[in-house]
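Lab notebook: predicted structure, single chain.

Context: the supervisor wants predicted structures on file for every construct in the current expression panel, including those that have not yet been purified. This is the next one on the list. No modifications to the sequence; it matches the entry in the shared construct table.
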Amino acid sequence: MALAFIPYFARYPYETYVAPRETRASLAHLSASELSDFAIDLRETLIRLDNLWRMSFPYVMVLHQAPTDRAYPGFHFHIEIHPPLRKPGLLKYLAGPEIGGGNFLNDTAPEEKAAELQAVSSVHYTNGGEGRRDEAAAR
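Prediction complete. Output recorded below exactly as produced.
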């Protein structure tokens, strides 16, 4: 199985990591069943982001794999999803602390954002899945 989570150090409100439960150095090191589970969890995570506001949620996806110059047995492959939206139509703009100092400011609690994503359907809204129930809070 894989797991998806919003880390306590998230730079964006809905920044999400997807990782296999077992330590694997790269995508190529996953077994067939691990790869299948990972793909299912990644897909469901992306669907939940879309379902949050019933729109195609923009994001940057980053794959972190071990370097290939030698063995890195402790490296844990993972994917990071960096969505720039704070609310529908409201981007998180990077300012001086983020750009100049590399210090990201995020005024949201990861537990709250994770609960929001868990509350929406893993069936895409275009296929009948449900989005947020409290549409007013999304505005």
